[in-house]
Amino acid sequence: MTDSIKNDTSSFQLPEKTKTPSSNSMDKDMFMKILIAQLSNQDPTAPMEDKEFISQMAQFSSLEQMQSIGKGIDTMMLNQHAGALMTYSNLIGKTVSYESESTEQDASGKNVSSTMKETANVLSVKRDGADVIAELSNGKSVSVYELTEIKTKEEK
């Protein structure tokens, strides 16, 4: 009996890395396949109630509409981020002011915070998540929402 057992490891293969892992989320194609399988395998003497069928079709329609809304919201968010970047691109070449906080030690060794107004020229703008950042000529990066003043670049 032990002669029939082969110790052949060459028949074992690792799964392909290019395959995408299956997800547990249901999409509309899976829903339709389940519905078609349910309809084709139902008992002809006791068919599905029309109320159940209408309910399942309504669920399918809701799923399709929710997916469509989700795609629309994703597109709208991308457009909004691109629009914000384009809007703030007009800051390039302008002089902006912002407040920065600095902490210094006084004569007694106590830390004292002070707020001072800094001014610099905007070299570029970039998007960082939902925020738009202005790259300044003084080497600092400041959120456009922290700017307190915008002036046309002064000629020297």
Summarize the structure in words.
- The chain has 156 residues and is an alpha+beta fold.
- It contains 2 helices and 5 strands, in the order H-H-E-E-E-E-E.
- A 5-stranded antiparallel sheet has the order 4-3-2-1-5, with helices on one face.
Short description:
The chain has 156 residues and is α+β, with helices and mostly antiparallel strands. Helix content is 33%, strand content 28%.
- The percent of residues in helical segments reads 25-40%
How many E strands? 5
- The N- to C-terminal Cα distance equals 97 Å
Q: Order of strands across the widest beta sheet? A: 4-3-2-1-5
Largest sheet: 5 strands, antiparallel
Structural class: alpha+beta
Shape: elongated
Number of helices: 2
Q: Poorly predicted ranges (pLDDT <50, ≥5 residues)?
A: 1-15
Mean pLDDT: 77
How much of the sequence lies in strands comes to 25-35%
Order of helices and strands: HHEEEEE
From the alpha carbons, calculate the radius of gyration and give it in angstroms.
Answer: 32 Å
Question: Topology of this protein?
Answer:
Elements: H1 28-40, H2 50-88, E1 95-105, E2 111-128, E3 131-136, E4 141-143, E5 147-151
Antiparallel strand pairs: 1-2, 1-5, 2-3, 3-4
Helix pairs in contact: 1-2
